[in-house]
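Step 1: inspect the first sequence and its tokens.
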Amino acid sequence: MPMNAQRPLGYWLKLVDSLISEQFTVALEEHGVTRRQWQLLNALAQGPATGGELTVALAPFFGEAVPEGEPSTPSEHLAELVESGWVAEEGHSFSLTERGAASLEKLTAIVDAMREESSAGVSAGDYATTVATLQRMAQNLGWRENTTSP
């Protein structure tokens, strides 16, 4: 491809997505948690939830390719979080423990720093426009809020 040829939207979406995934994986693994576990912790920060509710809420993330050696289902990730003492299980409901909440707070600072780094040099207005544009394109392609696919 000539240096001055403009690459299509799909190229940039896939590239940025893979770079974000790679950065998340490296940063979170240093702290003993997977990206999917971090997502589960975030969901539980909103309040207790059943395994089924967590599976539905995080379905888009569990549809992605699973890194080698990582659990492949929400229940496997939850089991590790329960075992680590970050999540408590009572009956069919899961909730964050104090330890889990403290860990999530530290992890959130790391993720916020990564997000800040990835958007350096992008104005708040440009960022908001990019997100709104991608949301509109997803809706044009059949996506609806609170659904996992078009």
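Step 2: inspect the second sequence and its tokens, then contrast the two.
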Amino acid sequence: MNSRTEYLLQAGPAGLLEVAIDRPPVDAVQRGTAVIAHPHPLFGGTMQNKVVGTLARAFVQTGWTAVRFNFRGIGQSEGSYDNGIGEVQDLLAVIEAQAPTGPLALAGFSFGGFVTASAVAQLHGRREPEKLILVGTAASRFQVPPVPVELHPRTLVLHGEQDDTVPLQAALDWARPQFLPVTVIPGVEHFFHGQLTLLKGLAVRHLSQA
């Protein structure tokens, strides 16, 4: 993301995982660690995705250490695509290694939103994120678990009105039974082309709330 980004390889369930870490300034209030999941590995998704990078910047700006990583089979991460099942285990392994204790935030974009929601479901009752951001969640393509009701006040769900990859209706159909609010950005498509500044501002506003 910038010249100060730290890159490392850590152990994962299918081999090594490539990780990138961006930290807030040392004199800033340190709020904890945020782990961000990228879009679908088979369709060009990597931790360098612009939406993922924008979310990382929002976290760093608000005092969080932002951790991005490549799912198995992408970049220097070993292994191969596992239909979302192994990818959830990848995310859990990154949390365990990079944020084993302390305040935790999670975010995911598209396929990464599905993976993040699945990890939240597995962690429920053991480790709850203080903040959760789901962008363009792949609700039309995967069975996305519901967000635990007690996490709703800490959750921001963003979706573009003109999303041509995951139709807005699919996101609303997923959210409706939960009474989970969805913030709809008019005129915006899946990758937030030309609207990354708006995306960052919405994320920063959410992260700045008590």
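Step 3: confirm your contrast with the notes below.
The chain has five helices and eight strands. Residues 71 and 146 are 22 Å apart (CA to CA).
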